[in-house]
Amino acid sequence: MKKEQAFLLSLLASSVGQTSSPEPPDFSETEWKSLIAESFCQAVGYLTFSLCEPFRDRVPANLYPHWNRAIIQTMGRNRNIATAQNELTALLGDRPYLILKGLASAAYYPDPALRDFGDVDFLVDEALLGEVSELLLAHGYQSEGEENDHHIVFKKPFYHLELHREPPGIPAGAAGADIRAYLGDLTGHAVVQTLECGVLHATFRAPEPARHGLILLLHMQHHMLSEGLGLRHLLDWAFFVTKTWSEPFWQAELLPLFEKTGLLTYAAAMTKTCARYLGAPEPAFCREVSDELCAAIIEDVFALGNFGNKDRGRSHAAALTGEGEHRKKSVFGVFHDMVKAKHPVLRRAPLLYPVFAVGELFGYCFGVLTGRRTRLSKLRRAAKEREALYRRLAVFQTGNPRSDHPTDFTS
């Protein structure tokens, strides 16, 4: 781990644990640039900037204005997200809905305005999907055919909505059935959140805490086993655990459900990682997780960044593994998915696929020759490294399949 990364973790830990700031860093200009770039790659740019305010005199004078402008852009994006959500909730009126992640996660932060936002994820009952879709289309949104098994994307300038039919990350089989049974009528278990801080002014319906925690964990494993997990995901979990870990629902609901569905090892590992690196509490159920496993998790986070934006080659390598809910694919299968993802027009004109595929193949070969793309041998090596880590997390594996699976979660 680089010293800029270690300092970033100590900064974030001071926010989660509500402790004093770390000692002022003695960074060169290059190291300051590395810290700033890392914070944006991990989608924790705004919070990092705020926590660095006591060290402003250490930041090179020619660098600070650029950093400040980037944060102003982040604030503008956050304001757009809050405005889009407020417009959405006004349109929905009395229709039951839930805001997933995003501002619902920010509500657990000491200052919700400092969380970096990406889009507005919301959920409505299956019976309302058609009605809500037509409502959004009638108010200027376009769906552009972007959808998958659990959400539909709606866009207009500066606004990006994801309409969910259920939370992402729920597996098939018995584990998925148990999770769906626990979630039950999600919109019927909503709590009203009001955020009034900084550029955020919003009142909305969010999942009640226990279900919010399950939704967070499902979302984390879903992205960790696919494109990659960023520090923002870990922070969301760290702030949630910090605020709720002593609540009765952990022992009465979440931990038994995690054990039943094969999420307990993963929940324990992520909680211990947040305790070790981000200053979160260390509940009894995670104490037996090894420091070595936590170190491997944090290294994976730093290797990939938020949604794999630091290393697209290593990110795509996840599809070469067969862990969790994700089916193992061949190199050709990964390439096929990449072409379709980069060229959405193929949904409307599939006959153009050979043109785009040949173009991407030549682009990849040229990128490898120039060092800008990941070689296939390195891609396979990255896949094996990620697979080795994820096997230890035993996601959705039941029956205490691993020696490092926590067996006593009571306190």
Task: Give the key terms.
411 residues; single chain; alpha+beta; disordered C terminus; two-stranded antiparallel sheet; globular
**Major beta-sheet overview:** 4 strands, mixed
For the biggest β-sheet, the strand order reads: 1-2-4-3
Based on DSSP secondary structure assignment, what is the total number of beta strands? 6
What portion of residues is helical?
Answer: 40-55%
Helix-strand category: alpha+beta
Low-pLDDT runs of 5+ residues are 323-327, 407-411
Hey, roughly how much beta strand do the residues contain?
Answer: 5-15%
- Roughly how many Å apart are the termini? 33 Å
**C-alpha Rg (nearest Å):** 21 Å
The run of helices and strands is: HHHHEHEHEEHEEHHHHHHHHH
In round numbers, the mean pLDDT is 86
Brief summary:
With 411 residues, the chain is an alpha+beta fold.
Give a description of the structure.
By secondary structure, the chain is an alpha+beta fold. The chain contains 16 helices and 6 strands. It has helices spanning 3-16, 29-41, 45-51, 64-92, 102-106, 129-138, 173-183, 209-224, 231-244, 249-261, 264-278, 291-304, 312-316, 331-342, 353-370, 376-393, and strands at residues 97-100, 120-124, 151-156, 159-164, 190-197, 200-207. The longest helix is centred in the first third of the chain and has 29 residues, at 64-92.
